[in-house]
Amino acid sequence: MNLKNLSSEWFTLIEILVSITIFSIILVSVFQIYITATDINAKTDITRAVQQNIKSSIEKIAEDVRKNGFDCVQDWYLWSCDLPPLNETIVWNRLKIDGNTYGLWQKSWTWYVLVDATECDDITEKCTLVYNRKPIMNSWVDVKNIQFFISDTLVKKLTVVMTIQPAQWKWIKPNLIKDNRFHFQTTISERTNLN
Fold first, then answer.
1. Structural domain tally of the chain?
2. Is residue 27 part of a domain?
3. In whole angstroms, what is the distance from residue 50 CA to residue 54 CA?
4. 160 in a structural domain
5. pLDDT digits (tens, 9 = 90+) for 63-119
6. CB 122 within 8 A of CB 144
7. What is the structure's pLDDT at 98?
8. Which residues contact residue 194 at a Cβ distance below 8 angstroms, ignoring those fewer than 6 apart?
9. Strand partners, 155
10. Domain of 82?
11. For residues 115 and 95, what is the distance between their CA atoms, to the nearest angstrom?
12. Is 5 within the bounds of a domain?
Protein backbone atom coordinates (compact mmCIF):
# COMPACT_ATOMS: atom_id res chain seq x y z
CA MET A 1 0.00 0.00 0.00
CA ASN A 2 1.22 3.41 -0.90
CA LEU A 3 1.78 5.82 2.04
CA LYS A 4 0.62 8.84 -0.01
CA ASN A 5 -2.81 7.34 -0.62
CA LEU A 6 -3.29 6.48 3.07
CA SER A 7 -2.59 10.00 4.33
CA SER A 8 -5.05 11.61 1.92
CA GLU A 9 -7.93 9.46 3.17
CA TRP A 10 -7.64 10.45 6.86
CA PHE A 11 -8.02 13.77 8.68
CA THR A 12 -5.02 15.35 10.27
CA LEU A 13 -5.00 16.18 13.96
CA ILE A 14 -5.15 19.90 13.22
CA GLU A 15 -8.24 19.48 11.03
CA ILE A 16 -9.98 17.51 13.78
CA LEU A 17 -9.12 20.12 16.41
CA VAL A 18 -10.36 22.97 14.20
CA SER A 19 -13.65 21.19 13.45
CA ILE A 20 -14.19 20.35 17.16
CA THR A 21 -13.52 24.00 18.07
CA ILE A 22 -15.99 25.28 15.46
CA PHE A 23 -18.60 22.73 16.56
CA SER A 24 -18.10 23.72 20.23
CA ILE A 25 -18.56 27.42 19.43
CA ILE A 26 -21.78 26.67 17.55
CA LEU A 27 -23.04 24.41 20.35
CA VAL A 28 -22.30 27.01 23.05
CA SER A 29 -24.03 29.71 20.98
CA VAL A 30 -27.14 27.57 20.51
CA PHE A 31 -27.18 26.71 24.22
CA GLN A 32 -26.84 30.41 25.14
CA ILE A 33 -29.74 31.30 22.82
CA TYR A 34 -31.82 28.56 24.46
CA ILE A 35 -31.02 29.84 27.98
CA THR A 36 -31.85 33.44 26.97
CA ALA A 37 -35.14 32.37 25.37
CA THR A 38 -36.05 30.37 28.49
CA ASP A 39 -35.30 33.38 30.73
CA ILE A 40 -37.40 35.67 28.53
CA ASN A 41 -40.27 33.18 28.59
CA ALA A 42 -40.04 32.83 32.38
CA LYS A 43 -39.89 36.61 32.82
CA THR A 44 -42.98 37.01 30.63
CA ASP A 45 -44.88 34.39 32.65
CA ILE A 46 -43.80 36.01 35.91
CA THR A 47 -44.79 39.49 34.76
CA ARG A 48 -48.17 38.24 33.57
CA ALA A 49 -48.85 36.46 36.88
CA VAL A 50 -47.85 39.48 38.97
CA GLN A 51 -49.90 41.89 36.87
CA GLN A 52 -52.94 39.60 36.95
CA ASN A 53 -52.71 39.36 40.74
CA ILE A 54 -52.41 43.13 41.09
CA LYS A 55 -55.37 43.68 38.77
CA SER A 56 -57.67 41.18 40.48
CA SER A 57 -56.86 42.30 44.02
CA ILE A 58 -57.23 46.02 43.24
CA GLU A 59 -60.51 45.37 41.39
CA LYS A 60 -61.80 43.52 44.46
CA ILE A 61 -60.80 46.36 46.80
CA ALA A 62 -62.17 49.03 44.41
CA GLU A 63 -65.49 47.22 44.02
CA ASP A 64 -65.77 46.86 47.78
CA VAL A 65 -64.90 50.55 48.38
CA ARG A 66 -67.35 51.78 45.77
CA LYS A 67 -70.10 49.49 47.01
CA ASN A 68 -69.64 49.88 50.79
CA GLY A 69 -67.30 52.82 51.32
CA PHE A 70 -64.54 52.24 53.84
CA ASP A 71 -64.62 52.32 57.60
CA CYS A 72 -61.05 53.06 58.59
CA VAL A 73 -57.44 51.93 58.50
CA GLN A 74 -55.64 50.13 61.32
CA ASP A 75 -52.09 49.34 62.27
CA TRP A 76 -51.31 45.61 62.22
CA TYR A 77 -50.94 45.36 65.99
CA LEU A 78 -53.63 47.85 67.07
CA TRP A 79 -57.32 47.15 66.85
CA SER A 80 -58.37 50.79 67.05
CA CYS A 81 -59.92 52.20 63.92
CA ASP A 82 -58.69 55.60 62.71
CA LEU A 83 -60.17 58.03 60.21
CA PRO A 84 -58.38 61.23 59.28
CA PRO A 85 -59.64 64.68 60.17
CA LEU A 86 -60.91 66.77 57.25
CA ASN A 87 -58.22 67.59 54.65
CA GLU A 88 -55.66 65.27 56.24
CA THR A 89 -54.29 61.83 55.41
CA ILE A 90 -53.76 58.79 57.60
CA VAL A 91 -51.83 55.65 56.67
CA TRP A 92 -51.78 52.11 58.13
CA ASN A 93 -51.42 48.63 56.68
CA ARG A 94 -54.91 47.23 57.35
CA LEU A 95 -58.12 48.44 55.75
CA LYS A 96 -61.61 47.89 57.17
CA ILE A 97 -64.58 47.94 54.82
CA ASP A 98 -68.04 47.18 56.13
CA GLY A 99 -66.55 45.26 59.06
CA ASN A 100 -64.26 43.17 56.82
CA THR A 101 -60.47 43.51 56.84
CA TYR A 102 -57.81 43.65 54.13
CA GLY A 103 -54.25 43.24 55.34
CA LEU A 104 -50.81 41.70 54.94
CA TRP A 105 -50.52 38.19 56.28
CA GLN A 106 -47.67 35.72 56.35
CA LYS A 107 -48.06 32.04 55.66
CA SER A 108 -47.04 30.01 58.69
CA TRP A 109 -47.31 26.27 58.03
CA THR A 110 -50.95 25.90 56.97
CA TRP A 111 -52.53 29.12 58.26
CA TYR A 112 -51.93 32.85 57.87
CA VAL A 113 -50.72 35.21 60.60
CA LEU A 114 -51.20 38.99 60.58
CA VAL A 115 -47.82 40.71 60.21
CA ASP A 116 -46.14 44.06 59.79
CA ALA A 117 -44.56 44.77 56.41
CA THR A 118 -41.05 44.65 57.91
CA GLU A 119 -41.55 40.92 58.51
CA CYS A 120 -41.99 40.35 54.76
CA ASP A 121 -38.81 42.11 53.57
CA ASP A 122 -36.80 38.94 53.08
CA ILE A 123 -36.97 37.44 49.59
CA THR A 124 -37.93 34.03 51.02
CA GLU A 125 -40.83 35.20 53.19
CA LYS A 126 -44.25 34.15 51.92
CA CYS A 127 -46.65 37.07 52.52
CA THR A 128 -49.89 37.84 50.76
CA LEU A 129 -52.84 40.20 50.74
CA VAL A 130 -55.71 38.66 52.68
CA TYR A 131 -59.39 39.52 52.90
CA ASN A 132 -61.01 38.14 56.06
CA ARG A 133 -58.24 35.56 56.50
CA LYS A 134 -58.56 34.34 52.91
CA PRO A 135 -55.81 35.13 50.39
CA ILE A 136 -56.97 37.17 47.40
CA MET A 137 -53.72 36.60 45.51
CA ASN A 138 -52.46 33.27 44.26
CA SER A 139 -49.27 31.51 45.30
CA TRP A 140 -47.29 32.89 42.34
CA VAL A 141 -46.67 36.22 44.07
CA ASP A 142 -45.52 37.54 47.43
CA VAL A 143 -46.61 40.92 48.75
CA LYS A 144 -43.62 42.57 50.38
CA ASN A 145 -45.36 45.71 51.59
CA ILE A 146 -48.82 47.25 51.53
CA GLN A 147 -50.08 50.55 52.84
CA PHE A 148 -53.53 52.10 52.77
CA PHE A 149 -53.71 55.90 52.74
CA ILE A 150 -57.08 57.50 53.49
CA SER A 151 -57.51 61.17 52.73
CA ASP A 152 -60.66 62.97 53.69
CA THR A 153 -61.37 65.85 51.37
CA LEU A 154 -64.78 66.49 49.86
CA VAL A 155 -64.74 62.90 48.60
CA LYS A 156 -62.96 60.31 50.72
CA LYS A 157 -60.12 58.65 48.78
CA LEU A 158 -58.19 55.48 49.39
CA THR A 159 -54.66 55.13 48.00
CA VAL A 160 -53.19 51.63 47.94
CA VAL A 161 -49.40 51.26 47.70
CA MET A 162 -47.98 47.75 47.25
CA THR A 163 -44.65 46.11 46.59
CA ILE A 164 -45.07 42.73 44.92
CA GLN A 165 -42.58 40.19 43.65
CA PRO A 166 -42.79 36.69 42.23
CA ALA A 167 -42.87 33.95 44.83
CA GLN A 168 -39.76 31.87 45.22
CA TRP A 169 -40.15 28.66 43.24
CA LYS A 170 -37.60 26.00 42.37
CA TRP A 171 -37.55 26.94 38.70
CA ILE A 172 -37.35 30.72 39.19
CA LYS A 173 -33.85 32.14 39.39
CA PRO A 174 -33.23 34.64 42.22
CA ASN A 175 -32.21 37.34 39.75
CA LEU A 176 -35.60 37.02 38.01
CA ILE A 177 -37.33 37.56 41.36
CA LYS A 178 -35.32 40.70 42.08
CA ASP A 179 -35.73 42.02 38.52
CA ASN A 180 -39.50 41.57 38.65
CA ARG A 181 -40.29 43.40 41.87
CA PHE A 182 -43.22 45.73 41.19
CA HIS A 183 -44.06 48.91 43.08
CA PHE A 184 -47.72 49.69 42.49
CA GLN A 185 -49.89 52.60 43.54
CA THR A 186 -53.50 53.49 42.77
CA THR A 187 -56.16 55.74 44.21
CA ILE A 188 -59.82 54.78 44.62
CA SER A 189 -62.61 57.23 45.44
CA GLU A 190 -65.77 56.40 47.31
CA ARG A 191 -68.84 56.60 45.17
CA THR A 192 -70.75 59.75 45.99
CA ASN A 193 -74.53 59.99 46.04
CA LEU A 194 -75.83 62.19 43.27
CA ASN A 195 -79.11 63.07 45.06
1. 1
2. yes
3. 6
4. yes
5. 888 888 777 776 655 556 656 565 566 667 778 887 788 888 787 666 666 666 666
6. no
7. 79
8. none
9. none
10. 13-189
11. 14
12. no
